[in-house]
Amino acid sequence: MNPRMMFATARRVLEQLRHDHRSVALILVVPALLLAAVYYLFENETLPPGFPRTFDRVGLMMLAIFPFVVMFLVTSITMLRERTTGTLERLLTTPIHKADLLFGYAIAFSLMAALQSLVATAVAYWIFNLDIKGGPGYVVMIAVINAVLGVALGLLCSAFARTEFQAVQFMPVVVVPQILLCGLFVAREHMNGFLESISNVLPLTYSVDALQQIAGNTDATQAMWQDAVTMAGIVVAVLVLASFTLRRRTS
Amino acid sequence: MSHSSSGNSTSVNSTSGRAKPTGPAAVKATGVHVTRGRKKILRGIDFAIEPGRITGLLGPSGSGKTTLMRAVVGVQRLRAGAIEVLGRPAGTPSLRHVVGYVTQAPSVYPDLSVEANVRYFGAMHDAKASDAAEAIAAVGLEKLARQKTASLSGGEFSRVSLACALVSHPQLLVLDEPTVGLDPVLRAELWDRFAAMAATGTTLIVSSHVMEEASHCSSLLLLRDGLLLAQLSPTELSERGRSHDLEKAFLHIIQESESANRNASESQVAS
User: Fold this and answer.
1) Where is the ABC transporter domain (chain B) (predicted)?
2) Which of A49, B175, B205, B228 is the most exposed place for a label (fewest CB within 10 A)?
């Protein structure tokens, strides 16, 4: 590991992104707009007294799901470009370590993810009065871990796509099942055994669980930290897998 | 005629008056075989390249030039044989500091400025900002340094790719068709630059399928169908090919080797 190469990579990725205004808008503005849509969707719901608003449940989950989806998309395309334009092969002829490259990417995109969740969380709290017991700091933390998870999976999946079209096809395969089974639509304890066991091994499940812990408790719970650690472990495992797809020597 | 082709590559080396061995070879290949799927790309290549010289790698497209260059850089898996670069096996991690490689398709980031590209690749070699400026000036892009690479013309784009290799001051620079798509003036400038680099001790391997560029090299590797036809100097090429037009000379040598092969296989069938 060489910090200079790692930060040079992070800087380079951010600089590429800076020139791409549409992607910056996708990352920073779109989640807030979608959050507004969810808010107004449930604006006129009638609730029994003492029952939490749907927005407080769904809006909160979305704060974690956005960074995951957006970062997966942005990373898999960026990395695929790196693979297909020959810059990856060229980089691997230089002294850069694979970890410098992967962590450079992870640092750049988690910075963007942190900005994204700050904007989205601020909108949820101050404009739509998101009402949960736990603090917003923890929500942002889980959102950033989710974003890094999206980055890691994107780096890995880019190895199995030849074109950008194929890379986008991983969205329904990798991302949608996680959203369906994470407990957002149906609580996991109400799923049948088969679906629940799949849901147990999907990383997004743990972030939804962590957010439910944050929503229901004023202080950080043991369960929330466990979820966070589990996710961090999955991120490291996926990054290690991704590093195997970076080959210095090919046939 | 028939006996001349088998010993070509070695006999040229030993008889050439110019090729005095000046210490260890910068690149030494022995019995290099590369296959991709069932296709044999390189079928037993042997050569040695002296340091501080420009070596041209010439041959028709599909002859294995790029694969051979990739093998020298150490990114190509070999089926058999070995390549030694600057005294170490090709692909050794420490070689990544001293070997520069410019691929045929320019491999730079189109969404970054020229400067940002060169600085990024420079960061991999602890290069300073002054090194980046120097590399950009070397390819004549000072005025465009702040431009986005995507907005440049094809020739300028490939020069950015070259600058990204120059920034690290490599001891061995491997260039895959660096002059494709450049106008004659620029091409001449680049060859001058390569000559200047060789004069300061850099070893260059430059591939081309344009035979007229061969005259800029001090040594030539003629490749065809994954075999090394000959290693010789441009003068020797025109002598052996019996033409001052290097293109014609190369064609002559190809025909010569093919008729030799035919003779060899006929005699094999006969015995």
Assistant:
1) 27-250
2) A49
